[in-house]
Automatic annotation (TrEMBL), chains A, B:
Keywords: Isoprene biosynthesis, Magnesium, Metal-binding, Transferase. It is an enzyme of class 2 (transferase). This is Polyprenyl synthetase family protein. NCBIfam families: FPPsyn. The lineage of its organism: Bacteria, Pseudomonadati, Pseudomonadota, Betaproteobacteria, Burkholderiales. It comes from the Bacteria. InterPro entries: Isoprenoid_synthase_dom_sf (IPR008949), Polyprenyl_synt (IPR000092), Polyprenyl_synt_CS (IPR033749), Prenyl_diphosphate_synthase (IPR053378). Its cofactor is Mg(2+). SUPFAM superfamilies: Terpenoid synthases. CDD domains: Trans_IPPS_HT. One of its GO terms (molecular function) is transferase activity. Its EC number is 2.5.1.-.
Length: 295, 295
Protein backbone atom coordinates (compact mmCIF):
# COMPACT_ATOMS: atom_id res chain seq x y z
CA UNK A 1 0.00 0.00 0.00
CA UNK A 2 1.24 3.43 -0.87
CA UNK A 3 1.57 6.09 1.79
CA UNK A 4 -1.09 8.26 0.17
CA UNK A 5 -3.65 5.42 0.29
CA UNK A 6 -2.96 5.08 3.99
CA UNK A 7 -3.28 8.83 4.46
CA UNK A 8 -6.61 8.75 2.65
CA UNK A 9 -7.83 5.88 4.81
CA UNK A 10 -6.79 7.78 7.94
CA UNK A 11 -8.56 10.94 6.77
CA UNK A 12 -11.76 9.09 5.90
CA UNK A 13 -11.71 7.06 9.10
CA UNK A 14 -11.19 10.11 11.26
CA UNK A 15 -13.94 12.02 9.49
CA UNK A 16 -16.41 9.22 10.21
CA UNK A 17 -15.09 8.78 13.74
CA UNK A 18 -15.36 12.46 14.66
CA UNK A 19 -18.90 12.62 13.30
CA UNK A 20 -19.92 9.54 15.28
CA UNK A 21 -18.34 10.73 18.50
CA UNK A 22 -19.91 14.16 18.03
CA UNK A 23 -23.27 12.39 17.77
CA UNK A 24 -22.70 10.27 20.87
CA UNK A 25 -21.37 12.80 23.38
CA UNK A 26 -24.51 14.59 24.51
CA UNK A 27 -24.63 18.36 24.11
CA UNK A 28 -27.74 18.34 26.26
CA UNK A 29 -26.35 16.79 29.44
CA UNK A 30 -27.46 18.98 32.33
CA UNK A 31 -25.83 21.97 34.02
CA UNK A 32 -22.82 22.31 31.73
CA UNK A 33 -21.80 18.67 32.06
CA UNK A 34 -22.33 17.99 28.36
CA UNK A 35 -20.25 21.01 27.44
CA UNK A 36 -17.37 19.78 29.61
CA UNK A 37 -17.65 16.24 28.21
CA UNK A 38 -17.57 17.54 24.65
CA UNK A 39 -14.67 19.90 25.39
CA UNK A 40 -12.68 16.99 26.75
CA UNK A 41 -13.45 14.49 24.02
CA UNK A 42 -14.13 16.25 20.70
CA UNK A 43 -11.86 17.98 18.23
CA UNK A 44 -8.41 17.05 19.38
CA UNK A 45 -5.94 14.29 19.94
CA UNK A 46 -4.22 11.95 17.55
CA UNK A 47 -7.06 9.41 17.79
CA UNK A 48 -4.56 6.57 17.67
CA UNK A 49 -6.81 4.23 19.66
CA UNK A 50 -9.83 4.64 17.37
CA UNK A 51 -7.61 4.12 14.31
CA UNK A 52 -6.25 0.92 15.87
CA UNK A 53 -9.79 -0.37 16.49
CA UNK A 54 -10.87 0.42 12.93
CA UNK A 55 -7.69 -0.95 11.31
CA UNK A 56 -7.90 -4.12 13.35
CA UNK A 57 -11.55 -4.57 12.45
CA UNK A 58 -10.66 -4.05 8.78
CA UNK A 59 -7.90 -6.68 9.03
CA UNK A 60 -10.47 -9.28 10.13
CA UNK A 61 -13.22 -7.92 7.87
CA UNK A 62 -15.37 -7.33 10.94
CA UNK A 63 -18.59 -5.49 11.79
CA UNK A 64 -17.88 -1.84 11.05
CA UNK A 65 -20.75 -0.41 13.08
CA UNK A 66 -19.60 -2.27 16.17
CA UNK A 67 -15.99 -1.23 15.56
CA UNK A 68 -16.94 2.43 15.24
CA UNK A 69 -18.77 2.22 18.57
CA UNK A 70 -15.77 0.46 20.10
CA UNK A 71 -13.50 3.19 18.70
CA UNK A 72 -15.63 5.85 20.41
CA UNK A 73 -15.73 3.90 23.66
CA UNK A 74 -11.96 3.45 23.81
CA UNK A 75 -11.36 7.11 23.01
CA UNK A 76 -13.84 8.17 25.72
CA UNK A 77 -11.91 6.11 28.27
CA UNK A 78 -8.63 7.63 27.07
CA UNK A 79 -10.04 11.17 27.11
CA UNK A 80 -11.57 10.79 30.58
CA UNK A 81 -8.23 9.53 31.92
CA UNK A 82 -6.52 12.65 30.59
CA UNK A 83 -9.10 14.89 32.29
CA UNK A 84 -8.54 13.22 35.66
CA UNK A 85 -4.78 12.88 35.17
CA UNK A 86 -4.43 16.61 34.51
CA UNK A 87 -6.21 17.62 37.70
CA UNK A 88 -4.34 19.44 40.49
CA UNK A 89 -4.33 16.38 42.77
CA UNK A 90 -2.63 14.35 40.01
CA UNK A 91 -0.31 15.97 37.42
CA UNK A 92 -1.68 19.50 37.86
CA UNK A 93 -1.33 20.31 34.18
CA UNK A 94 -2.86 23.34 32.49
CA UNK A 95 -2.28 22.55 28.79
CA UNK A 96 -3.63 19.59 26.80
CA UNK A 97 -4.07 19.21 23.05
CA UNK A 98 -3.04 22.87 22.79
CA UNK A 99 -5.97 24.03 24.94
CA UNK A 100 -6.45 24.75 28.64
CA UNK A 101 -7.12 21.49 30.47
CA UNK A 102 -10.73 20.69 31.34
CA UNK A 103 -10.50 21.66 35.00
CA UNK A 104 -8.94 24.99 34.02
CA UNK A 105 -11.81 25.65 31.62
CA UNK A 106 -14.70 24.24 33.72
CA UNK A 107 -13.49 23.96 37.31
CA UNK A 108 -12.30 20.88 39.17
CA UNK A 109 -15.67 19.53 40.24
CA UNK A 110 -17.16 19.67 36.75
CA UNK A 111 -13.98 18.14 35.30
CA UNK A 112 -14.14 15.22 37.71
CA UNK A 113 -17.83 14.66 36.94
CA UNK A 114 -17.22 14.96 33.19
CA UNK A 115 -14.52 12.28 33.43
CA UNK A 116 -16.83 10.05 35.45
CA UNK A 117 -19.67 10.53 32.96
CA UNK A 118 -17.33 9.85 30.03
CA UNK A 119 -16.37 6.49 31.50
CA UNK A 120 -20.04 5.56 31.89
CA UNK A 121 -20.74 6.81 28.37
CA UNK A 122 -18.06 4.49 27.01
CA UNK A 123 -20.09 1.49 28.21
CA UNK A 124 -23.31 3.12 27.06
CA UNK A 125 -22.09 3.44 23.47
CA UNK A 126 -21.04 -0.24 23.50
CA UNK A 127 -24.55 -1.34 24.46
CA UNK A 128 -26.99 0.23 21.99
CA UNK A 129 -30.57 -1.05 21.82
CA UNK A 130 -29.82 -2.47 18.38
CA UNK A 131 -27.04 -2.73 15.82
CA UNK A 132 -24.56 -4.85 17.77
CA UNK A 133 -25.18 -8.49 18.67
CA UNK A 134 -25.62 -8.83 22.45
CA UNK A 135 -22.77 -11.33 22.75
CA UNK A 136 -20.41 -8.89 21.02
CA UNK A 137 -21.65 -6.07 23.28
CA UNK A 138 -20.80 -8.18 26.31
CA UNK A 139 -17.38 -9.09 24.90
CA UNK A 140 -16.50 -5.48 24.14
CA UNK A 141 -17.63 -4.34 27.60
CA UNK A 142 -15.54 -7.08 29.19
CA UNK A 143 -12.41 -6.09 27.25
CA UNK A 144 -12.87 -2.37 27.90
CA UNK A 145 -13.61 -2.72 31.62
CA UNK A 146 -10.52 -4.85 32.20
CA UNK A 147 -8.22 -2.51 30.29
CA UNK A 148 -9.55 0.62 32.01
CA UNK A 149 -9.55 -0.64 35.57
CA UNK A 150 -7.28 -1.72 38.40
CA UNK A 151 -5.46 -4.29 36.28
CA UNK A 152 -4.97 -1.82 33.43
CA UNK A 153 -4.99 1.93 33.11
CA UNK A 154 -6.08 2.93 36.62
CA UNK A 155 -3.62 0.46 38.14
CA UNK A 156 -0.82 1.88 36.01
CA UNK A 157 -1.64 5.37 37.17
CA UNK A 158 -1.50 4.25 40.78
CA UNK A 159 2.01 2.87 40.18
CA UNK A 160 2.93 6.09 38.41
CA UNK A 161 1.69 8.09 41.39
CA UNK A 162 3.71 6.00 43.81
CA UNK A 163 6.86 6.18 41.68
CA UNK A 164 7.39 9.94 41.68
CA UNK A 165 10.89 10.72 42.91
CA UNK A 166 11.87 7.06 42.94
CA UNK A 167 14.25 5.25 40.65
CA UNK A 168 12.57 2.25 38.97
CA UNK A 169 14.30 -0.59 37.19
CA UNK A 170 13.32 -1.18 33.57
CA UNK A 171 11.12 -4.13 34.50
CA UNK A 172 8.96 -2.13 36.94
CA UNK A 173 8.85 0.80 34.53
CA UNK A 174 7.70 -1.54 31.77
CA UNK A 175 4.95 -2.97 34.00
CA UNK A 176 3.77 0.52 34.90
CA UNK A 177 3.56 1.62 31.28
CA UNK A 178 2.06 -1.64 30.11
CA UNK A 179 -0.83 -0.99 32.47
CA UNK A 180 -1.02 2.77 32.17
CA UNK A 181 -0.88 3.14 28.40
CA UNK A 182 -0.14 -0.22 26.82
CA UNK A 183 -3.18 -2.18 27.95
CA UNK A 184 -5.70 0.26 26.46
CA UNK A 185 -3.80 0.47 23.15
CA UNK A 186 -3.66 -3.32 23.07
CA UNK A 187 -7.37 -3.48 23.95
CA UNK A 188 -8.09 -1.21 20.98
CA UNK A 189 -6.57 -3.80 18.67
CA UNK A 190 -8.24 -6.73 20.43
CA UNK A 191 -11.65 -5.03 20.44
CA UNK A 192 -11.37 -4.33 16.73
CA UNK A 193 -10.50 -7.97 16.13
CA UNK A 194 -13.46 -9.07 18.30
CA UNK A 195 -15.76 -7.39 15.77
CA UNK A 196 -14.93 -10.11 13.24
CA UNK A 197 -14.51 -13.87 13.03
CA UNK A 198 -10.88 -14.66 13.51
CA UNK A 199 -8.88 -17.73 14.48
CA UNK A 200 -7.47 -17.92 18.00
CA UNK A 201 -3.95 -17.80 16.56
CA UNK A 202 -4.58 -14.67 14.53
CA UNK A 203 -6.28 -13.02 17.52
CA UNK A 204 -3.25 -13.80 19.65
CA UNK A 205 -0.90 -12.33 17.05
CA UNK A 206 -2.95 -9.16 16.85
CA UNK A 207 -2.88 -8.95 20.63
CA UNK A 208 0.93 -9.30 20.57
CA UNK A 209 1.09 -6.57 17.94
CA UNK A 210 -0.99 -4.36 20.24
CA UNK A 211 1.25 -5.06 23.22
CA UNK A 212 4.44 -4.15 21.33
CA UNK A 213 2.86 -1.07 19.81
CA UNK A 214 1.53 0.03 23.19
CA UNK A 215 4.95 -0.12 24.76
CA UNK A 216 6.56 1.58 21.75
CA UNK A 217 4.07 4.41 22.13
CA UNK A 218 5.17 5.07 25.69
CA UNK A 219 8.88 4.84 24.91
CA UNK A 220 8.42 7.41 22.14
CA UNK A 221 6.35 9.57 24.51
CA UNK A 222 9.23 9.62 26.95
CA UNK A 223 11.69 10.48 24.16
CA UNK A 224 9.50 13.33 22.89
CA UNK A 225 9.08 14.68 26.40
CA UNK A 226 12.78 15.57 26.43
CA UNK A 227 13.39 16.30 22.71
CA UNK A 228 10.36 18.44 21.80
CA UNK A 229 8.93 21.69 23.11
CA UNK A 230 5.41 22.36 24.39
CA UNK A 231 4.17 24.04 21.21
CA UNK A 232 4.91 20.97 19.09
CA UNK A 233 3.55 18.57 21.71
CA UNK A 234 0.39 20.53 22.49
CA UNK A 235 1.02 19.72 26.14
CA UNK A 236 3.64 20.73 28.67
CA UNK A 237 7.06 19.38 27.60
CA UNK A 238 9.63 18.19 30.09
CA UNK A 239 6.99 17.67 32.76
CA UNK A 240 8.04 14.12 33.61
CA UNK A 241 11.60 15.28 34.10
CA UNK A 242 10.42 18.23 36.19
CA UNK A 243 8.20 15.97 38.28
CA UNK A 244 11.15 13.65 38.82
CA UNK A 245 9.21 10.78 37.26
CA UNK A 246 11.09 7.74 36.01
CA UNK A 247 10.96 7.44 32.20
CA UNK A 248 12.57 5.22 29.58
CA UNK A 249 14.99 8.05 28.89
CA UNK A 250 15.95 8.46 32.54
CA UNK A 251 16.28 4.70 33.06
CA UNK A 252 17.90 3.67 29.76
CA UNK A 253 19.36 6.89 28.34
CA UNK A 254 18.15 8.63 25.16
CA UNK A 255 19.88 6.55 22.48
CA UNK A 256 19.04 3.15 24.01
CA UNK A 257 15.44 4.34 24.36
CA UNK A 258 15.39 5.14 20.64
CA UNK A 259 16.80 1.68 19.96
CA UNK A 260 14.07 0.09 22.07
CA UNK A 261 11.39 1.93 20.09
CA UNK A 262 12.79 0.52 16.84
CA UNK A 263 12.98 -2.96 18.29
CA UNK A 264 9.35 -2.80 19.45
CA UNK A 265 8.26 -1.67 15.99
CA UNK A 266 9.98 -4.71 14.52
CA UNK A 267 8.24 -6.95 17.09
CA UNK A 268 4.88 -5.43 16.24
CA UNK A 269 5.40 -6.02 12.53
CA UNK A 270 6.60 -9.56 13.07
CA UNK A 271 3.38 -10.27 14.98
CA UNK A 272 1.35 -8.97 12.04
CA UNK A 273 3.17 -11.35 9.70
CA UNK A 274 2.59 -14.19 12.17
CA UNK A 275 -1.16 -13.46 12.19
CA UNK A 276 -1.43 -14.81 8.66
CA UNK A 277 -4.04 -12.14 7.90
CA UNK A 278 -3.92 -10.76 4.36
CA UNK A 279 -4.72 -7.11 4.96
CA UNK A 280 -2.66 -5.77 7.82
CA UNK A 281 -1.16 -2.83 5.94
CA UNK A 282 -3.04 -0.21 7.98
CA UNK A 283 -1.90 -1.76 11.23
CA UNK A 284 1.67 -1.91 9.93
CA UNK A 285 1.66 1.75 8.91
CA UNK A 286 0.10 2.72 12.25
CA UNK A 287 3.11 1.12 13.94
CA UNK A 288 5.36 3.27 11.76
CA UNK A 289 3.41 6.39 12.63
CA UNK A 290 3.68 5.65 16.36
CA UNK A 291 7.46 5.30 16.23
CA UNK A 292 8.08 8.13 13.75
CA UNK A 293 5.70 10.69 15.26
CA UNK A 294 7.02 14.06 16.37
CA UNK A 295 4.19 14.90 18.78
CA UNK B 1 -44.38 -12.36 55.78
CA UNK B 2 -43.39 -11.68 59.34
CA UNK B 3 -40.83 -9.04 60.17
CA UNK B 4 -38.39 -11.60 61.51
CA UNK B 5 -38.47 -13.58 58.24
CA UNK B 6 -37.61 -10.38 56.42
CA UNK B 7 -34.81 -9.64 58.88
CA UNK B 8 -33.45 -13.15 58.35
CA UNK B 9 -33.58 -12.70 54.58
CA UNK B 10 -31.75 -9.37 54.90
CA UNK B 11 -29.06 -10.89 57.12
CA UNK B 12 -28.51 -13.86 54.85
CA UNK B 13 -28.49 -11.73 51.73
CA UNK B 14 -26.02 -9.27 53.17
CA UNK B 15 -23.74 -12.05 54.36
CA UNK B 16 -23.59 -13.51 50.86
CA UNK B 17 -23.28 -10.07 49.30
CA UNK B 18 -20.39 -8.97 51.51
CA UNK B 19 -18.53 -12.21 50.85
CA UNK B 20 -18.99 -11.84 47.10
CA UNK B 21 -17.93 -8.19 47.05
CA UNK B 22 -14.93 -9.02 49.23
CA UNK B 23 -13.96 -11.60 46.62
CA UNK B 24 -14.38 -9.24 43.70
CA UNK B 25 -12.61 -6.09 44.90
CA UNK B 26 -8.94 -6.94 44.39
CA UNK B 27 -6.66 -6.73 47.39
CA UNK B 28 -3.73 -7.06 45.01
CA UNK B 29 -4.30 -4.02 42.81
CA UNK B 30 -0.99 -2.18 42.57
CA UNK B 31 0.54 0.60 44.65
CA UNK B 32 -2.17 0.80 47.31
CA UNK B 33 -5.00 1.14 44.80
CA UNK B 34 -6.64 -2.09 45.93
CA UNK B 35 -6.47 -1.02 49.55
CA UNK B 36 -8.22 2.25 48.72
CA UNK B 37 -10.86 0.47 46.62
CA UNK B 38 -11.56 -1.99 49.43
CA UNK B 39 -11.66 0.77 52.05
CA UNK B 40 -14.25 2.62 49.99
CA UNK B 41 -16.46 -0.34 49.14
CA UNK B 42 -16.30 -3.00 51.86
CA UNK B 43 -17.71 -3.17 55.36
CA UNK B 44 -20.08 -0.27 55.50
CA UNK B 45 -23.21 1.29 54.15
CA UNK B 46 -26.81 0.19 54.28
CA UNK B 47 -26.44 -1.83 51.07
CA UNK B 48 -29.92 -0.78 50.02
CA UNK B 49 -29.11 -1.06 46.32
CA UNK B 50 -27.82 -4.64 46.53
CA UNK B 51 -30.89 -5.63 48.58
CA UNK B 52 -33.14 -4.11 45.93
CA UNK B 53 -31.38 -6.06 43.18
CA UNK B 54 -31.66 -9.32 45.12
CA UNK B 55 -35.28 -8.77 46.21
CA UNK B 56 -36.29 -7.84 42.69
CA UNK B 57 -34.57 -10.92 41.29
CA UNK B 58 -36.36 -13.05 43.90
CA UNK B 59 -39.70 -11.51 42.92
CA UNK B 60 -39.22 -12.72 39.34
CA UNK B 61 -37.50 -15.97 40.36
CA UNK B 62 -34.45 -14.90 38.38
CA UNK B 63 -30.82 -16.00 38.02
CA UNK B 64 -29.29 -15.54 41.45
CA UNK B 65 -25.66 -15.59 40.33
CA UNK B 66 -26.30 -12.82 37.84
CA UNK B 67 -28.27 -10.84 40.43
CA UNK B 68 -25.45 -11.10 42.97
CA UNK B 69 -23.01 -9.77 40.38
CA UNK B 70 -25.45 -6.98 39.51
CA UNK B 71 -25.79 -6.18 43.22
CA UNK B 72 -22.00 -5.81 43.50
CA UNK B 73 -21.82 -3.71 40.34
CA UNK B 74 -24.51 -1.29 41.49
CA UNK B 75 -22.92 -0.94 44.92
CA UNK B 76 -19.51 -0.29 43.33
CA UNK B 77 -21.01 2.54 41.29
CA UNK B 78 -22.68 3.95 44.39
CA UNK B 79 -19.52 3.65 46.48
CA UNK B 80 -17.30 5.25 43.82
CA UNK B 81 -19.73 8.17 43.57
CA UNK B 82 -19.42 8.74 47.31
CA UNK B 83 -15.62 8.76 47.08
CA UNK B 84 -15.64 11.39 44.35
CA UNK B 85 -18.52 13.35 45.89
CA UNK B 86 -16.66 13.65 49.21
CA UNK B 87 -13.52 15.10 47.63
CA UNK B 88 -12.45 18.69 48.37
CA UNK B 89 -13.44 19.95 44.93
CA UNK B 90 -16.98 18.61 45.49
CA UNK B 91 -18.55 18.37 48.96
CA UNK B 92 -15.24 18.39 50.84
CA UNK B 93 -16.47 15.96 53.46
CA UNK B 94 -14.27 14.17 55.97
CA UNK B 95 -16.68 11.62 57.47
CA UNK B 96 -18.49 8.79 55.67
CA UNK B 97 -20.01 5.61 57.09
CA UNK B 98 -18.48 6.64 60.41
CA UNK B 99 -14.94 6.59 59.00
CA UNK B 100 -12.63 9.21 57.49
CA UNK B 101 -13.48 9.65 53.82
CA UNK B 102 -11.27 7.91 51.28
CA UNK B 103 -9.29 10.98 50.26
CA UNK B 104 -8.61 11.75 53.93
CA UNK B 105 -7.31 8.22 54.44
CA UNK B 106 -5.43 7.77 51.13
CA UNK B 107 -4.91 11.20 49.61
CA UNK B 108 -6.87 12.88 46.84
CA UNK B 109 -5.07 11.35 43.88
CA UNK B 110 -5.46 7.78 45.12
CA UNK B 111 -9.12 8.45 46.01
CA UNK B 112 -9.85 9.72 42.52
CA UNK B 113 -8.11 6.71 40.96
CA UNK B 114 -9.88 4.31 43.31
CA UNK B 115 -13.23 5.77 42.29
CA UNK B 116 -12.31 5.49 38.63
CA UNK B 117 -11.18 1.89 39.07
CA UNK B 118 -14.35 1.03 40.99
CA UNK B 119 -16.50 2.23 38.10
CA UNK B 120 -14.52 0.06 35.68
CA UNK B 121 -14.73 -2.86 38.12
CA UNK B 122 -18.52 -2.56 38.14
CA UNK B 123 -18.60 -3.39 34.44
CA UNK B 124 -15.94 -6.05 34.91
CA UNK B 125 -18.04 -7.96 37.46
CA UNK B 126 -21.03 -7.83 35.09
CA UNK B 127 -19.03 -9.51 32.32
CA UNK B 128 -17.47 -12.69 33.73
CA UNK B 129 -16.03 -15.27 31.36
CA UNK B 130 -18.82 -17.63 32.32
CA UNK B 131 -21.87 -17.87 34.56
CA UNK B 132 -24.03 -15.14 33.03
CA UNK B 133 -25.56 -15.43 29.55
CA UNK B 134 -23.91 -12.88 27.22
CA UNK B 135 -27.22 -11.25 26.35
CA UNK B 136 -27.93 -10.68 30.04
CA UNK B 137 -24.41 -9.31 30.53
CA UNK B 138 -25.04 -6.81 27.76
CA UNK B 139 -28.45 -5.85 29.19
CA UNK B 140 -27.05 -5.31 32.68
CA UNK B 141 -24.15 -3.22 31.33
CA UNK B 142 -26.60 -1.12 29.31
CA UNK B 143 -28.81 -0.47 32.34
CA UNK B 144 -25.90 0.32 34.64
CA UNK B 145 -24.09 2.62 32.19
CA UNK B 146 -27.22 4.69 31.57
CA UNK B 147 -28.04 5.05 35.27
CA UNK B 148 -24.46 6.00 36.22
CA UNK B 149 -23.78 8.52 33.46
CA UNK B 150 -24.80 11.92 32.18
CA UNK B 151 -28.48 11.06 32.05
CA UNK B 152 -28.40 9.59 35.55
CA UNK B 153 -26.17 9.94 38.55
CA UNK B 154 -23.36 12.06 37.09
CA UNK B 155 -25.91 14.38 35.47
CA UNK B 156 -27.72 14.76 38.78
CA UNK B 157 -24.49 15.65 40.51
CA UNK B 158 -23.79 18.32 37.89
CA UNK B 159 -27.22 19.86 38.60
CA UNK B 160 -26.51 19.61 42.32
CA UNK B 161 -23.20 21.41 41.82
CA UNK B 162 -24.84 24.19 39.85
CA UNK B 163 -27.68 24.58 42.36
CA UNK B 164 -25.65 25.51 45.44
CA UNK B 165 -26.92 28.76 46.86
CA UNK B 166 -29.88 28.83 44.47
CA UNK B 167 -33.53 28.33 45.24
CA UNK B 168 -35.02 25.53 43.10
CA UNK B 169 -38.69 24.83 42.55
CA UNK B 170 -39.93 21.38 43.52
CA UNK B 171 -39.96 20.22 39.91
CA UNK B 172 -36.28 21.02 39.31
CA UNK B 173 -35.35 19.59 42.70
CA UNK B 174 -37.23 16.39 41.84
CA UNK B 175 -35.39 16.12 38.50
CA UNK B 176 -32.04 16.61 40.21
CA UNK B 177 -32.72 13.90 42.78
CA UNK B 178 -34.29 11.55 40.27
CA UNK B 179 -31.00 11.62 38.38
CA UNK B 180 -28.62 11.86 41.31
CA UNK B 181 -30.05 9.13 43.53
CA UNK B 182 -33.31 7.87 42.09
CA UNK B 183 -32.10 6.52 38.78
CA UNK B 184 -29.52 4.17 40.34
CA UNK B 185 -32.00 2.90 42.94
CA UNK B 186 -34.52 2.33 40.18
CA UNK B 187 -31.84 0.63 38.06
CA UNK B 188 -31.16 -1.72 40.98
CA UNK B 189 -34.76 -2.92 40.81
CA UNK B 190 -34.78 -3.10 37.00
CA UNK B 191 -31.46 -4.98 36.88
CA UNK B 192 -32.76 -7.51 39.40
CA UNK B 193 -35.88 -7.98 37.29
CA UNK B 194 -33.73 -8.38 34.15
CA UNK B 195 -32.22 -11.50 35.75
CA UNK B 196 -35.53 -13.32 35.29
CA UNK B 197 -38.27 -13.79 32.73
CA UNK B 198 -40.95 -11.25 33.39
CA UNK B 199 -43.81 -9.75 31.39
CA UNK B 200 -43.38 -6.21 30.05
CA UNK B 201 -46.20 -5.06 32.33
CA UNK B 202 -44.65 -6.50 35.47
CA UNK B 203 -41.27 -5.06 34.52
CA UNK B 204 -42.84 -1.65 34.10
CA UNK B 205 -44.55 -1.90 37.49
CA UNK B 206 -41.26 -2.85 39.16
CA UNK B 207 -39.61 0.10 37.45
CA UNK B 208 -42.35 2.40 38.78
CA UNK B 209 -41.82 0.94 42.25
CA UNK B 210 -38.11 1.72 41.91
CA UNK B 211 -38.79 5.29 40.80
CA UNK B 212 -41.09 6.01 43.76
CA UNK B 213 -38.73 4.34 46.21
CA UNK B 214 -35.76 6.24 44.78
CA UNK B 215 -37.45 9.56 45.30
CA UNK B 216 -38.67 8.57 48.78
CA UNK B 217 -35.10 7.73 49.71
CA UNK B 218 -33.90 11.23 48.88
CA UNK B 219 -36.82 12.94 50.62
CA UNK B 220 -36.05 10.95 53.77
CA UNK B 221 -32.34 11.78 53.36
CA UNK B 222 -33.18 15.46 53.36
CA UNK B 223 -35.40 15.03 56.44
CA UNK B 224 -32.69 13.13 58.34
CA UNK B 225 -30.10 15.74 57.39
CA UNK B 226 -31.94 18.26 59.60
CA UNK B 227 -33.42 15.94 62.26
CA UNK B 228 -30.47 13.66 63.11
CA UNK B 229 -26.93 14.25 64.32
CA UNK B 230 -23.66 13.09 62.73
CA UNK B 231 -23.14 10.16 65.10
CA UNK B 232 -26.43 8.54 64.14
CA UNK B 233 -25.98 9.30 60.44
CA UNK B 234 -22.33 8.20 60.25
CA UNK B 235 -21.75 11.23 58.07
CA UNK B 236 -21.76 14.98 58.62
CA UNK B 237 -25.30 16.10 59.54
CA UNK B 238 -26.71 19.44 58.45
CA UNK B 239 -24.21 19.70 55.62
CA UNK B 240 -26.79 20.45 52.93
CA UNK B 241 -28.16 23.26 55.04
CA UNK B 242 -24.65 24.54 55.73
CA UNK B 243 -23.77 24.38 52.05
CA UNK B 244 -26.94 26.29 51.25
CA UNK B 245 -28.14 23.45 49.05
CA UNK B 246 -31.81 23.22 48.16
CA UNK B 247 -33.48 20.19 49.78
CA UNK B 248 -37.03 18.88 50.08
CA UNK B 249 -37.13 20.33 53.57
CA UNK B 250 -35.97 23.77 52.45
CA UNK B 251 -38.35 23.78 49.47
CA UNK B 252 -41.44 22.15 51.02
CA UNK B 253 -40.93 22.50 54.77
CA UNK B 254 -40.38 19.60 57.21
CA UNK B 255 -43.94 18.35 57.68
CA UNK B 256 -44.90 18.43 54.00
CA UNK B 257 -41.65 16.59 53.22
CA UNK B 258 -42.65 13.87 55.69
CA UNK B 259 -46.05 13.70 54.00
CA UNK B 260 -44.40 13.33 50.61
CA UNK B 261 -42.29 10.41 51.86
CA UNK B 262 -45.45 8.61 53.02
CA UNK B 263 -47.18 9.29 49.72
CA UNK B 264 -44.22 7.90 47.75
CA UNK B 265 -44.22 4.75 49.90
CA UNK B 266 -47.88 4.26 49.04
CA UNK B 267 -47.09 4.77 45.35
CA UNK B 268 -44.27 2.22 45.53
CA UNK B 269 -46.53 -0.37 47.16
CA UNK B 270 -49.34 0.27 44.70
CA UNK B 271 -46.89 -0.43 41.88
CA UNK B 272 -45.97 -3.76 43.51
CA UNK B 273 -49.64 -4.74 43.62
CA UNK B 274 -50.02 -3.70 40.00
CA UNK B 275 -47.09 -5.92 38.99
CA UNK B 276 -49.23 -8.99 39.62
CA UNK B 277 -46.17 -10.80 40.94
CA UNK B 278 -46.82 -13.18 43.82
CA UNK B 279 -43.75 -12.68 45.96
CA UNK B 280 -43.08 -8.98 46.38
CA UNK B 281 -42.97 -8.99 50.19
CA UNK B 282 -39.23 -8.22 50.36
CA UNK B 283 -39.61 -5.29 48.03
CA UNK B 284 -42.58 -4.04 50.05
CA UNK B 285 -40.68 -4.24 53.33
CA UNK B 286 -37.67 -2.55 51.74
CA UNK B 287 -39.94 0.39 50.91
CA UNK B 288 -40.96 0.49 54.58
CA UNK B 289 -37.34 0.41 55.70
CA UNK B 290 -36.46 3.30 53.37
CA UNK B 291 -39.20 5.53 54.74
CA UNK B 292 -38.85 4.50 58.39
CA UNK B 293 -35.05 4.52 58.59
CA UNK B 294 -33.31 6.75 61.12
CA UNK B 295 -29.93 6.93 59.38
Amino acid sequence: MEAKDFDRWVDQSLLAFEATLDDLVPAGAPAGLGEAMRYASLGGGKRLRPLLVLASCAAVNGDRFAAMRAACAVELIHAYSLVHDDMPCMDNDVLRRGKPTTHVAFGEAQAMLAGDAMQALAFEVLTPDSGIAPALQARLCALLARSAGHDGMAGGQAIDLASIGRQLDECTLRDMHRRKTGVLLQASVVMGAACGDVSAGAAQSLSAYGAALGLAFQVVDDILDVTQDSVVLGKTAGKDQDANKPTYVSVLGLEPAKGLAQQLRAEAKAALVASGLADVSHLSLLADSVVERVN
